[in-house]
Amino acid sequence: MDERRTLAWHETLEMHELVAFQSNGLIRLKKMIREVKDPQLRQLYSVSIQAVEQNLRELLPFFPQAPHREDEEEERADNPFYSGDLLGFAKTSVRSYAIAITETATPQLRNVLVKQLNAAIQLHAQVYRYMYQHGYYPSYNLSELLKNDVRNANRALSMK
Protein backbone atom coordinates (compact mmCIF):
# COMPACT_ATOMS: atom_id res chain seq x y z
CA MET A 1 0.00 0.00 0.00
CA ASP A 2 1.37 3.41 -0.91
CA GLU A 3 1.66 6.34 1.49
CA ARG A 4 -1.09 8.91 0.93
CA ARG A 5 -1.00 12.55 1.98
CA THR A 6 -4.78 12.81 2.29
CA LEU A 7 -7.38 10.64 3.91
CA ALA A 8 -9.97 8.86 1.81
CA TRP A 9 -13.47 10.35 1.86
CA HIS A 10 -15.02 7.36 3.63
CA GLU A 11 -12.46 7.37 6.44
CA THR A 12 -12.77 11.14 6.77
CA LEU A 13 -16.50 10.77 7.27
CA GLU A 14 -16.03 7.99 9.83
CA MET A 15 -13.50 10.17 11.65
CA HIS A 16 -16.04 13.02 11.58
CA GLU A 17 -18.70 10.78 13.18
CA LEU A 18 -16.30 9.64 15.92
CA VAL A 19 -14.98 13.11 16.74
CA ALA A 20 -18.44 14.69 16.71
CA PHE A 21 -19.85 11.95 18.96
CA GLN A 22 -16.90 11.98 21.35
CA SER A 23 -16.75 15.79 21.55
CA ASN A 24 -20.41 15.99 22.56
CA GLY A 25 -19.91 13.10 24.96
CA LEU A 26 -16.89 14.78 26.54
CA ILE A 27 -18.78 18.04 27.05
CA ARG A 28 -21.65 16.08 28.61
CA LEU A 29 -19.27 14.13 30.90
CA LYS A 30 -17.53 17.32 32.01
CA LYS A 31 -20.85 18.97 32.81
CA MET A 32 -22.20 15.94 34.63
CA ILE A 33 -19.15 15.08 36.74
CA ARG A 34 -19.85 18.21 38.81
CA GLU A 35 -23.10 16.60 39.98
CA VAL A 36 -21.67 13.17 40.83
CA LYS A 37 -21.23 12.76 44.57
CA ASP A 38 -20.27 9.10 44.85
CA PRO A 39 -16.42 8.92 44.85
CA GLN A 40 -16.24 5.63 42.93
CA LEU A 41 -18.66 6.82 40.24
CA ARG A 42 -16.87 10.18 40.10
CA GLN A 43 -13.60 8.27 39.49
CA LEU A 44 -15.27 6.36 36.63
CA TYR A 45 -16.33 9.68 35.12
CA SER A 46 -12.81 11.02 35.52
CA VAL A 47 -11.30 7.97 33.82
CA SER A 48 -13.86 8.27 31.02
CA ILE A 49 -13.07 11.96 30.54
CA GLN A 50 -9.34 11.22 30.33
CA ALA A 51 -9.91 8.39 27.83
CA VAL A 52 -12.11 10.51 25.55
CA GLU A 53 -9.68 13.43 25.75
CA GLN A 54 -6.89 11.08 24.67
CA ASN A 55 -9.04 9.76 21.82
CA LEU A 56 -9.67 13.28 20.56
CA ARG A 57 -6.02 14.27 20.88
CA GLU A 58 -5.07 11.23 18.79
CA LEU A 59 -7.70 11.90 16.10
CA LEU A 60 -7.35 15.67 15.71
CA PRO A 61 -3.92 15.47 14.03
CA PHE A 62 -5.57 13.61 11.13
CA PHE A 63 -7.91 16.50 10.26
CA PRO A 64 -5.30 18.41 8.22
CA GLN A 65 -5.09 15.31 6.01
CA ALA A 66 -8.80 15.41 5.23
CA PRO A 67 -9.78 16.43 1.71
CA HIS A 68 -10.61 20.16 1.23
CA ARG A 69 -10.19 21.21 4.82
CA GLU A 70 -10.13 24.94 5.65
CA ASP A 71 -8.42 26.37 8.75
CA GLU A 72 -10.77 28.89 10.27
CA GLU A 73 -12.09 29.12 13.86
CA GLU A 74 -15.12 30.90 15.24
CA GLU A 75 -16.90 30.90 18.57
CA ARG A 76 -20.50 29.69 18.79
CA ALA A 77 -23.15 29.37 21.50
CA ASP A 78 -24.17 26.11 23.17
CA ASN A 79 -26.92 25.42 20.60
CA PRO A 80 -24.60 23.37 18.38
CA PHE A 81 -23.67 21.19 21.38
CA TYR A 82 -27.26 20.68 22.54
CA SER A 83 -28.58 19.98 19.07
CA GLY A 84 -25.60 17.72 18.27
CA ASP A 85 -26.16 15.79 21.48
CA LEU A 86 -29.83 15.40 20.59
CA LEU A 87 -28.90 14.26 17.07
CA GLY A 88 -26.51 11.67 18.53
CA PHE A 89 -29.26 10.47 20.85
CA ALA A 90 -31.71 10.19 17.96
CA LYS A 91 -29.17 8.36 15.78
CA THR A 92 -28.35 5.91 18.58
CA SER A 93 -32.07 5.36 19.17
CA VAL A 94 -32.60 4.48 15.51
CA ARG A 95 -29.73 1.99 15.62
CA SER A 96 -30.89 0.50 18.94
CA TYR A 97 -34.48 0.02 17.74
CA ALA A 98 -33.29 -1.54 14.47
CA ILE A 99 -31.16 -4.04 16.39
CA ALA A 100 -33.93 -4.78 18.88
CA ILE A 101 -36.40 -5.46 16.06
CA THR A 102 -34.08 -8.08 14.57
CA GLU A 103 -34.04 -9.85 17.96
CA THR A 104 -37.81 -9.72 18.56
CA ALA A 105 -39.96 -12.84 18.11
CA THR A 106 -43.23 -11.53 19.59
CA PRO A 107 -45.32 -9.84 16.88
CA GLN A 108 -47.00 -7.36 19.25
CA LEU A 109 -43.64 -6.23 20.64
CA ARG A 110 -42.24 -6.00 17.11
CA ASN A 111 -45.13 -3.71 16.11
CA VAL A 112 -44.47 -1.42 19.07
CA LEU A 113 -40.74 -1.31 18.32
CA VAL A 114 -41.37 -0.54 14.64
CA LYS A 115 -43.69 2.31 15.64
CA GLN A 116 -41.04 3.65 18.03
CA LEU A 117 -38.30 3.22 15.40
CA ASN A 118 -40.33 5.33 12.96
CA ALA A 119 -40.76 8.00 15.64
CA ALA A 120 -37.00 7.96 16.30
CA ILE A 121 -36.35 8.34 12.56
CA GLN A 122 -38.72 11.33 12.47
CA LEU A 123 -36.98 12.90 15.48
CA HIS A 124 -33.61 12.41 13.82
CA ALA A 125 -34.88 14.11 10.66
CA GLN A 126 -36.30 17.04 12.62
CA VAL A 127 -33.10 17.57 14.61
CA TYR A 128 -30.97 17.20 11.48
CA ARG A 129 -33.08 19.80 9.64
CA TYR A 130 -32.77 22.19 12.59
CA MET A 131 -28.99 21.76 12.69
CA TYR A 132 -28.65 22.08 8.92
CA GLN A 133 -30.81 25.23 8.77
CA HIS A 134 -28.77 26.85 11.55
CA GLY A 135 -25.41 25.89 10.02
CA TYR A 136 -24.52 23.48 12.86
CA TYR A 137 -24.37 20.46 10.54
CA PRO A 138 -23.20 21.51 7.07
CA SER A 139 -23.51 17.98 5.71
CA TYR A 140 -22.95 19.01 2.08
CA ASN A 141 -19.79 20.97 2.87
CA LEU A 142 -17.07 18.61 4.10
CA SER A 143 -14.67 21.44 4.91
CA GLU A 144 -17.20 23.16 7.17
CA LEU A 145 -18.25 19.85 8.71
CA LEU A 146 -14.67 19.03 9.66
CA LYS A 147 -14.02 22.58 10.85
CA ASN A 148 -16.99 22.18 13.23
CA ASP A 149 -15.54 18.88 14.48
CA VAL A 150 -12.17 20.47 15.25
CA ARG A 151 -13.82 23.44 16.97
CA ASN A 152 -16.05 21.19 19.10
CA ALA A 153 -13.22 18.82 20.00
CA ASN A 154 -10.97 21.73 21.02
CA ARG A 155 -13.80 23.23 23.05
CA ALA A 156 -14.37 19.92 24.81
CA LEU A 157 -10.66 19.49 25.51
CA SER A 158 -10.34 23.01 26.94
CA MET A 159 -13.26 22.63 29.37
CA LYS A 160 -12.38 22.26 33.02
From TrEMBL:
Q: What is its subcellular localisation?
A: Spore coat
Q: Which UniProt keywords apply?
A: Sporulation
Name one matching Pfam family: Coat_F
Output the InterPro entries linked to this UniProt entry: Ferritin-like, Spore_coat_CotF, Spore_coat_CotF-like
User: Main localization of the protein?
Assistant: other
Gene Ontology biological process terms from the UniProt entry = sporulation resulting in formation of a cellular spore
| Highest taxon of source | Bacteria
Q: Which family does it belong to?
A: Belongs to the CotF family.
Q: What is this protein called?
A: Spore coat protein CotF
Gene encoding this polypeptide? cotF
